[in-house]
Amino acid sequence: AQKVTQAQTEISVVEKEDVTLDCVYETRDTTYYLFWYKQPPSGELVFLIRRNSFDEQNEISGRYSWNFQKSTSSFNFTITASQVVDSAVYFCALSERSNMLTFGGGTRLMVKP
Amino acid sequence: KAGVTQTPRYLIKTRGQQVTLSCSPISGHRSVSWYQQTPGQGLQFLFEYFSETQRNKGNFPGRFSGRQFSNSRSEMNVSTLELGDSALYLCASSTRGDEQFFGPGTRLTVL
């Protein structure tokens, strides 16, 4: 069975600090996809990134970066120089050979000015 | 391109009633998935439809059902509503095997 764990339920930082959101996953499949979504107060889930299990290359997109390590089954997300607009709930998710997403419990990030 | 739309955005029902929620996917997307989000259980997968066929189903009772039309629009129905069905219901659309794009959700309150 697949499982995603986000151990940090809530993180509070001051603007311009760097912050890393942790994600650990479990799956028996060798082919799978990992995702990060952002959920602002409006409720809509905003897609941030998708990685497949065969691509362990880290990715950077502006202030966002992702570190995928199969050896530790982790897919961590770092925001550099955080901003108040980054305040939201962030979800890590896993899918195997279908469109069924298994989500972690989410991490609420609060960025204070 | 227009995003995923869901109607209605807010709904209040009483126990025992039934409800139908609608989702219009992004143009060209043939897969529609539904998720339930509650404070206690988090985000849980309900079902996925592709080309009018249910392709995957989550662990929910039979009171939860859905369908997809030939234009890829999807509806989900919950019969005999219970208090615990109060939740944000999210719909997502995708092309096959691609990232899923979510709609704004329908917030259902059961009194």
Pick out its properties:
heterodimer; A: 113 residues; mainly beta; six-stranded mixed sheet; four-stranded antiparallel sheet; globular; B: 111 residues; seven-stranded mixed sheet
Describe the overall structure.
The complex is a heterodimer of chains A (113) and B (111). With 113 residues, chain A is mainly beta. Chain A has no helices and twelve strands. Chain A is 0% helix and 52% strand. In chain A, a hairpin with a 6-residue loop joins strand 10 and strand 11. Chain B is mostly beta strands and 111 residues long. In chain B, strands 2, 4, 5, 6, 9, 10 and 11 form a seven-stranded mixed beta sheet that branches. A four-stranded antiparallel beta sheet of chain B has the order 1-3-8-7, with no helix packed on it. Chains A and B meet through strand 6 and strand 11 of A and strand 4, strand 5, strand 9 and strand 10 of B.
Concise description?
The complex is a heterodimer of chains A (113) and B (111). With 113 residues, chain A is mostly beta strands. Helix content of chain A is 0%, strand content 52%.
